[in-house]
Structures are given as C-alpha cells and as structure tokens.
Amino acid sequence: MTLHNDNHSADISADIANKLNAIGSAQRERLAFIDFALYFFGEVTRKDLIDRFAVGHAATTRDLALYKELMPDNLKLDMRSKKYFKQADFLPLFTLDLQKTLATISLGYGDGFAGHQAFPINCETPISLTIPRTPVMAVLCEGIYRHRLIEIDYISASSGQSTRVIAPHSLVDSGNRWHIRSFDRKNNQFMDVVCNRVVAARIIEQAPDQHESIDADRQWQKYIELELVPHPRLINPKAIEMDYEMREGKLVIESRAALAGYLLRKWEVDCSADGCLYVYVGYQLALNNPQALYQVTSAMLAPGYKG
User: Which end of the chain lies in a sparser environment, N or C, as judged by fewer CB atoms within 10 Å?
Assistant: First the structure.
C-alpha cells in the first residue's frame, strides 16, 4: 500500500506522511488494516485488530486514535455496538493495488509471505484484461460482509443499462473475471453479477429476505463430482495424467454446481459427447461424466456440452 494523496493539499499530505514515517512498521500495518476494513467491510472493531495482530487493548486504542487523527472524516464510533463505521465522506488513507486486494480477500489479510522485502523468487502471471473498479468492489464487498442489499446501475449484454437491487452473498473469481453471486430482484433469481458491468453501487440499509440468502441458493449449495480424463484422442495421455496428478487415469474433483461451468471453461475441458473439440488447440482434457451437469445452470458455459 502507498499513501493516498488524491484530493489532499500538499501540506496535509506532507503532514500525514511525516506522522506515518515517525511510527514503526508494525503500527503502520495496523493502520493499513483499519483502512482496508473500513473501505471493504464498512466497519472495524478493537477485537478485529486484537485477533489479527495479537496486540493489547492499549495498542488498539492508540492505533484507532492515530487513524482518527489522520483521517477524522473516515470513521465514527457507535457507542452501543463498540464498532467504528465508515462515513459517507470516506477517503482511503492508502492507495490499494486492487489485484492484490482481491487476493487478500480470497486468501486472508496478510496470511501469506510477510515482510517489506521483495519476494526471493520471481513470479509472473498472464495479464488480466478485466480489473474491476475499486470503489465499486468496496461497496459490493461491504454488502456481502454486512448482509445488506445493494442497489446497482448495471449494464447487461442483453438488455442494456438498468437499476436493480441485489442481495449478494459471495465473491467469485471465474479465472477470467470477477462476479458477485447474488439474488437479483429484477429477475427474481440467483445470478452471477459481472463486477465490471456495475457502473455504480449503493448500500441499502436493509437485510435480504430469507429466500434471497445464501442458504436458499440451491445451485450454490449443491456440489457435484466431475471426472476429468485425458482427451481420448491424445497420443500420449500419460503426460496429461502426470500434469494433473491423476489416479487410475482420471482426476475427480468436487465443485459447486453454480461454478462448475466456469471451472470446465477455464481448464478447457471438452464436454462434448463425441470429443469434437479436440481439433481446437488446448483441449487436452475431457469430461468423463457429462451426466453430472444435468440441471446445472452453469453448464451452458461448459465447452461443447449439450444438455
């Protein structure tokens, strides 16, 4: 994270930087956590800091007081709940790299390699072509965390732009783009909201109804087994067996029904009945049990599958 200088005067930014430079790296990390929690969860408590960093009450009091001193308009203490809530004029103290932030949400805050030095092994990944906008993702994540409805301005590939209310329950990385699994009141069903298509998002201070909750999402709660095998037209299937550490010539994985289509598409698994996709580059895997996709709504994404 780096200091957020947008909309700050040079004098204020210098003052904040000087105060942060005067403190230790451990406290700076805790301030970054406060900033992160407020931005993406809408709230933070002393217990959050104690649980995350194993520090005492006195240290958390100093941390929150310093954050309040640096960014007085960002948070407000609710005496009844003992929670600090994000305010309407919130401006992040630190500038976030959204890709790293999404990894943080997926894997846990700071639970990987710790330290400020460069990681000793170079690691490169293919560039992502679809990176959601940070302010939108912050609202969507807050809605999930606080179990609140969200009003979004959304652009659909079929119907264009509209305003709709969603009840989000999970963040999904399909491998190619980010989705929010939600109940969509406009269509009266659970669906995957593409984060990049959300123009604007606003929290509604109302909890979802029971039929809009994660427990009511049948496709999300249903798990299916997928049997992946080397494509039957391969000359040397043993190489693929080794790639995927297959046992007895197959790899059996469990997937939520709602995500099965994304998984099969990402890994380029030929789900056709006759293996016809082999002529295309990349199809080294085949689905050995296509019947598992029966009544799976995401099956429409599975390469070559015809239900």
Answer: C
Give the whole-angstrom CA distance, residue 246 versus residue 204.
Answer: 47
Residue type at 193?
V
pLDDT digits (tens, 9 = 90+) for 64-107: 999 999 999 999 999 999 999 999 999 999 887 777 777 666 65
The string of DSSP codes covering 84-110 is: EEE-TT---SEE--HHHHHHHHHH-TT
* CA atoms lying within 13 Å on the CB side of residue 193: 36
Q: Is the pLDDT of residue 117 over 80?
A: no
Cβ burial, residue 149 (10 Å; 0-12/13-18/19+): buried
Q: pLDDT tens digits, residue range 44-63?
A: 999 999 988 999 999 999 99
Q: Tell me 72's DSSP state.
A: T
pLDDT surpassing 80 at residue 290: yes
Residue 52 CB partners (closer than 8 Å, separation 6+): 33, 109, 110
The rounded distance, in Å, linking the Cα atoms of 3 and 199 is 26
What residue has token string 């302010």?
135
DSSP-based three-state secondary structure for 165: strand
Average pLDDT across the chain, whole number: 88
Q: 115-127 burial string, b = 16+ CB within 10 Å, else e?
A: eeeeeeeeeeeee
Burial class (CB in 10 A: 0-12, 13-18, 19+), 155: middle
Q: Can you tell me the distance from the alpha carbon of 83 to that of 221, in angstroms, rounded to the nearest whole number?
A: 32
Q: How many C-alpha atoms does 237 have within 13 Å on its Cβ side?
A: 15
Provide the pLDDT for residue 9. Answer: 38
Amino acid 2: pLDDT: 52
CA 187 from chain centre, in angstroms, equals 23
CA 57 to chain centre: 31
What whole-number distance in Å separates Cα of residue 264 and Cα of residue 97? 29
Confidence band, pLDDT 50/70/90 cuts, at residue 113: very low
